[in-house]
Amino acid sequence: MNAQPLYDLSPLASLLGLGALLAVGPLAWVYWRNRRCAPLQRLQALRLFTLFLTFDLILFGAFTRLTDSGLGCPDWPGCYGNTSPLGAHHAITAAQDAMPTGPVTQAKAWIEMIHRYLATGVGALILMMTVVSWLNWRARVRVEQASRSVELSPWWATFTLFWVGLQGAFGAWTVTLKLFPAIVTLHLGGALVLLALLGVQVVRGSTFTVPLAMTLLMRRWLALVFALLALQTVLGGWVSTNYAVLACSDFPQCQNRWWPEMNFQQGFELWRHLGVTGTGEPISFAALTAIHYVHRLMAYGVLTLLAVLAWQLSRLAAWRVHSRVLAALIGLQLVTGLSNVVLDWPLLAALLHTGGAAALVLTLTWIAASAAPDAKPAVPAMQRARVATLPEQTATGRLA
Question: Could you tell me if 140 and 35 are in contact, meaning their C-beta atoms sit under 8 angstroms apart?
Fold first, then answer.
């Protein structure tokens, strides 16, 4: 394989230009579809479209990882210093001839670069979303000072822009550190945070969203379930980045045992390279088993808590649509998780499992962002009746 610097910034300008071109189409479509709408409605359409493309980007990132294409171009941000694999054809062919099943092939190079193109396009859309948010906010302040507290703060978009830049850095480290498991897992987690940030802006920026009442106890329960779901998605990323899915190929047992041999110390040693321990020794199969089985055991608890949350929401008329979406996604995760184990990790099931996790994060974000900020527990009817009679009783007492 030809020696290539890990960082070659010569194609950076052309890649940024390509990302801008990719963003022009969606921007023109959003503007044309909403040309007769108010500026805030056009901004909301841009948020929604950016959220949709970010979800697609997460799925394509999973496809890149699952097809072992993460190192399809061994440098960053281009491919052997070129904007596309076309310019790197000879270098890629030489690497493929040397290792036909290795990390660098023509197909894997295209998959990796398409992922980078999509990421650059999403970044350009978020940059435009930030600029428009600030322009709308400033115009609104000049026209009507009293409305500043109603419109969504442009700092949401600004922080999202910062976060997508951080995601770009983790994408670069994913390549230059040769699929370092901790970095790849954090890259996946950061993508889900980006999805949640956009989800909050779509929900709270919509003129059609009516805040729904939620008790303090339900809020705390939602926060607990959300935190556990976040932990479970990180564990799932750790399973995938360490290629530990097939460590257990039977269900409900693992290796025909309820408690197989596991090495937790090796399995959850965070700062190490792929396939080896911190001391450079090959990681044991017992370590991969530990990674897989912890994720599976955690899944039992998280799916149960999600099911309880869906049941609680279904009892409230205003939240029934949310509960049905949540229940459907719970079923999807259960089916795809089992399929990954018993069907030897089929690509479609693995993609759907990642997509289901992202959709669960987005759904819980939707629920949390839809809750009225000043919602209080409902007052029982008997207590309301007693409160209502207090003025009358007080007045009667004064008359007496």
Answer: no
